[in-house]
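For the sake of clarity, the format in which proteins appear in this thesis is described at this point. Each number in the token line that follows is a code from a learned vocabulary of backbone shapes. One such record is shown here in full, so that the layout can be seen directly:
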Amino acid sequence: MACGATVTNVQDYDRGRIPSHTTLSNGRFLRMTGTITVKLQTNYDGRPQRTRPLALEAVTCLFQRRDASAVERLCVVD
């Protein structure tokens, strides 16, 4: 970020969590955790390989296409 802060988060679809870590420009470190609910489940049987297409779509939309509306289409964040 231009202000010198860094942000890392991971969408853990299998556990329904989003752990985030942020380092602020003043050196302060923040750990945050949110929850996520997958909206587009089709015949999901609990195997991680079933979430791969959803995860790839989310990452592609968010980071390559810079399409933030993908969050509303693909998941619900509590």
Notes: Residues 6-77 form one domain.
